[in-house]
Write a structure and sequence with these properties.
Low-confidence stretches: none
Shape: globular
Helix content: 25-40%
Strand order of the largest sheet: 3-4-5-6-7-8
Mean pLDDT: 90
CATH architecture: 3-Layer(aba) Sandwich
CATH superfamily: DD-peptidase/beta-lactamase superfamily
Distance between the termini: 36 Å
Order of helices and strands: EEHHEHEEEEEHH
Number of helices: 5
Strand content: 15-25%
Length: 168
């Protein structure tokens, strides 16, 4: 990955989208001073999509690590599926190694999101058909575009129901 980093790099100049608040006003970008695998990764959509393709095919990954990554390590069902949200939840909702794992009756999806001031990112892989999407926004309102985009991309209906259920 040549266009991905956790700390400020020379190639950032002119290539980092300016974050915007909920009113669309520009706010300062946040850059990490040290690598943190859980926060503030900067990447191009193309570079991240290449990473996602490698993840989908388990390229350069030991079988044992791929198994642990794909396995729910921590159930999130009691949090994500409370009350009315339960109706749209798949049988499995949890976290594997670095990914949210959603186990539907006919497919397993891996999802990763990110949110900092003025940005929202969303990526997923449908392991059953190797489809997926990478969506990077530079807006506090970026999460609002995810469902319309996934609908246009014809994402799995059960996945769309789950996502809708999470925001209602």
């Amino acid at each position: 990955m040549n266009s991905t980093a956790y700390t400020r790099k020379p190639w950032f100049r002119g290539r980092v989208a300016v974050p915007t608040n909920a009113e669309g006003k520009e706010i300062a970008s946040t850059f990490g001073d040290h690598a943190n695998a859980a926060d503030l990764v900067y990447s191009t959509p193309r570079d991240y999509a290449a990473f996602m393709i490698d993840v989908a095919s388990d390229r350069h990954l030991a079988t044992s690590v791929a198994y642990e990554r794909d396995r729910s390590q921590v159930s999130m069902k009691n949090i994500a599926c409370k009350g009315a949200k339960a109706a749209s939840c798949p049988p499995l909702v949890g976290f594997g190694l670095g990914w949210q794992i959603l186990g539907f009756a006919d497919a397993t999806l891996m999802m990763h999101t990110g949110k900092d001031d003025g940005v929202f990112t969303f990526a997923y892989i449908d392991r059953s058909d190797q489809s997926g999407a990478v969506i990077f926004t530079n807006s506090e309102n970026g999460c609002r575009i995810v469902l319309p985009l996934l609908e246009r991309l014809h994402a799995r209906p059960a996945f769309l129901r789950f996502l809708r259920g999470q925001i209602e």
